[in-house]
Fold this protein.
Amino acid sequence: MFFKNVAIEAVACALPTTIITSADIESQLADTMGRMGIKPGLIEGLTGIRERRFWDADQQASDVATLAAEKVLEKSGIPRDAIGCLISTSVSKDYIEPSVASMVHGNLGLADHCINYDMGNACLGFVNAMASVGMMIDAGLVDYGLIVDGENSREVVEATIERLSKPDAKPESFRDQFATLTLGSGAVAMIVCRRYLTTSGHVVNGSAWNWPKRPGTWPAAHWPTGAMRLSTPTCLTR
């Protein structure tokens, strides 16, 4: 799908101050890793992740998403009553219900006419939200949309370390839960708007599940014939 009138106006992020290195995690798992014959440096060596950050335990997804949203609103100068849609793509949740989006909506004091909802699709959720807001803009439903994401992985990482630290932890468990040890925390917010309203000039060309076979090609009007199917959606920008 190609957009006609969609642009990214501004992006902002918020980061926790607590830094946990991969070496810190491995030091907590030293007994388990030694028993399994796993050498130190595995996490960084396999993933390239040297450190990750954690929010305080009592900071919720909506709290940190609000921090990023406040930053992007200040950065862009867009009035709050101009935001027509708010989507949260947070994997972390304050509650099962109400939605994170509704909490952020209330925290920001957005207008009653601004619709809000959560969109969950793991790592792809934010890109899906960009496509959804883009379709709303092209349909003439909204002029500005706000997308937020706030994550706090502290609880799940600490729980995984606790499980893997037990004397009966098996190599299979370590392998299956290894990816959790790479998780970090942070928050981001983006304002997407109608193209003629943007001051950034950063146009969103579309959301594509099909990609041209020839790398680097960018046809002026449409993709060339003979496209291959991608398993993940991509937002095309310039």
The mean pLDDT is 89. The longest strand covers residues 202-212. The chain is about 30% helix and 30% strand. The domain at 8-198 is CATH 3.40.47.10 (Peroxisomal Thiolase; Chain A, domain 1).
